[in-house]
Amino acid sequence: MRRGRLGPVPSWWRDATAAAGWLVLLAVTALWVGGGGIRELGSLAGALTSTGRLTGLLASALLLLQVFLMARVPWVEQAWGQDELARTHRLVGLASSTLMLAHIALITLGYAAGSALGIWGTVVDLVVGYPGMLLAVAGTAALVMVVLTSVRRARRRLRYESWHLIHLYGYLGAGLALPHQLWTGTDFLSSQTATAFWWGLYAVCAGSVLAFRVALPLWRSLRAPLRVVDVRPEGPGVTTVTVGGAGVSRMPVRAGQFFQWRFLDGPGWTRAHPYSISAAPDGATLRLTVAHVGDGSSRLATLRPGTRVLVEGPYGRLHEGVRSRRKVLLMGSGIGIAPLRALLEDLDQAPGDVTVVHRVHSAQDAVLGDELTALAAARGARHLVVEGPRVPDRPSWLPEQARRLSDVDALRELVPDVAAHDVFICGTDGWMTAARTAAIGAGVPRDHIHLERFTY
């Protein structure tokens, strides 16, 4: 039973959400001006303090926007996709932390310039003598810890579970800063408009997290319980799991999207893992195909039918709703072919519209290869397997035996009219970057290239 097809994602959602973010920052600046921020720039102490207030206000707003970006609000998530949201989240976090440190330094110097206590005496006076400052110091420490562990080199040294637990301290940091802002922040209390704005901003962000990260997933999972229906090996180190239940028919899921999955099979069930569906939604079941790359994914092979399942989602823009051209190129590497297999099954297409390029190390590693061959034949798509070990000495999506070709030339050789395609890419992070670069070099506009990264 195939469900009704979902419509395209409105393009104006992205522009509207971006405009809303900039308007928040503009409003913060306007409130600072309205609160006398410019008038205080006449003296050294006033200039330092007033500029410090502005950097603190902008840091607070960006921190709240950072929380909102990852609240998984459906309209925002569909407008941007998890990949773009995560990248924007990091940039906003870097800007917020930089402004926060500037706020601390400028406020301290400004107070010290107008006091006989000196720098260190002013620091002690601020921390001990002002309401909420001890909590703010603790919140700042939590946020700095989150920032430091988000640096790429630090992330690579941490297990995903450890990094995720540390990252949750960002919520604690934002919460601990609130009393300081309300008790000593004159810009929060300078007018009813300012008070309503800041309380409203906190309420929207907190409400979004509670509604879309907690309430909605629990409601979807508990109102119509999902259970494991089938577990089967798909090849060496790969498992396919099928989940079913009445709740599946109520989920607005599209082929190519992913969920955060929790299987209630014992210790460790609280950790969610992102897995894409590997078959087009049929209204009755969801299927995922996963490579064993860690403890969480390896446990899937031991699941038993009947195991309860909790899900968050669906997420991601790797689906037909972002398609804007008739012709489509699906490029997948390794287990990244799983969501593209679902797309191949679901795409509205005529013979010749869709080309699948499946990059594998060897024929034995072609996950879902037989299914892809059968689906391509049934739907009139081209299915091309690019086989061989990777080129070792340059970033490339090609195998060693094709090293004589540039990435762009090879792509044009396989798909001569690639510039007229929408391109969907899924695979390892480096491979996707190389494939995306090749597609751009072959003339595909950037906004016609769609991919989803699962690196944290």
TrEMBL record:
Pfam families to which the protein is assigned, alphabetical: Ferric_reduct, NAD_binding_1
Transmembrane segment boundaries: 12-34, 54-71, 91-113, 133-151, 163-184, 196-216
Matches recorded under PROSITE patterns: FAD_FR
InterPro entries, per database record: FAD-bd_FR_type, Fe3_Rdtase_TM_dom, FNR_nucleotide-bd, MRET, OxRdtase_FAD/NAD-bd, Riboflavin_synthase-like_b-brl
Keywords, alphabetical: 2Fe-2S, FAD, Flavoprotein, Iron, Iron-sulfur, Membrane, Metal-binding, Oxidoreductase, Transmembrane, Transmembrane helix
Membrane topology, record value: Multi-pass membrane protein
Subcellular locations according to the entry: Membrane
Presence of the UniProt keyword Ligase in the record: no
CC cofactor: FAD
PANTHER family for this protein: 1,2-PHENYLACETYL-COA EPOXIDASE, SUBUNIT E, NADH OXIDOREDUCTASE HCR
Protein name as annotated: Ferric reductase-like transmembrane domain-containing protein
Originating organism: Fodinibacter luteus
